[in-house]
Amino acid sequence: MDNNADALAQSGEGRIDPTPQRIARMVLATALVLLGLWILHRYLAALAWAAVLAIALWPLFGAWLAHSGGTGSEFLRRSS
Predict the structure, then answer these.
(1) Whether 65 contacts 71, CB under 8 Å
(2) Euclidean distance between CA atoms 60 and 65, whole angstroms
(3) pLDDT of the residue at 18
(4) How far is CA 15 from CA 8, 10, 32, in A?
(5) Are 14 and 20 in contact (CB under 8 A)?
(6) Helices 18-40 and 44-68: crossing angle, nearest 10°?
(7) d(Cα 56, Cα 25) in Å, to the nearest integer?
(8) Is the pTM of this model over 0.70?
(9) Residue 5, class by beta-carbon neighbours within 10 Å (0-12 exposed, 13-18 middle, 19+ buried)?
(10) Residue 5 to residue 38: CA distance in whole angstroms
(11) CA distance 50 to 44
């Protein structure tokens, strides 16, 4: 009986092929990404503009902080 189990283990029979699991995982991951993009599609343009403005105005914000003598945390405390 042990010889039969050793023969199966050596031949590769009785093992689960990982390929269908990988395909299922990739399909699930793709579906989740597409579902997330579908939910957020109305907000993607606004998020893109927010990123562009944040990057473009960062030097101006730094100059304003240097001029006012503040550190960013003081600004955040005063505004709330």
Answers:
(1) yes
(2) 9
(3) 80
(4) 9, 10, 29
(5) no
(6) 70
(7) 39
(8) no
(9) exposed
(10) 50
(11) 10
Phi (first) and psi of residue 42, to 5 degrees: -75, -25
- CA 80/CA 74 separation, integer angstroms: 10
For 67, half-sphere exposure in the C-beta direction (CA atoms, 13 angstrom radius) is 6
pLDDT digits (tens, 9 = 90+) for 24-49: 999 999 999 999 989 989 998 999 99
DSSP structure string for 17-73: PHHHHHHHHHHHHHHHHHHHHHHHTTTHHHHHHHHHHHHHHHHHHHHHHHHHT--HH
Q: Which two tokens stand for residue 64?
A: 């304003």
Please provide residue 12's backbone torsions phi and psi, each rounded to the nearest 5 degrees. 90, -5
Q: Cα separation of 66 and 59, whole Å?
A: 11
In whole angstroms, give the CA distance from residue 76 to residue 43.
26
Give the distance between the most distant pair of CA atoms in the chain.
84
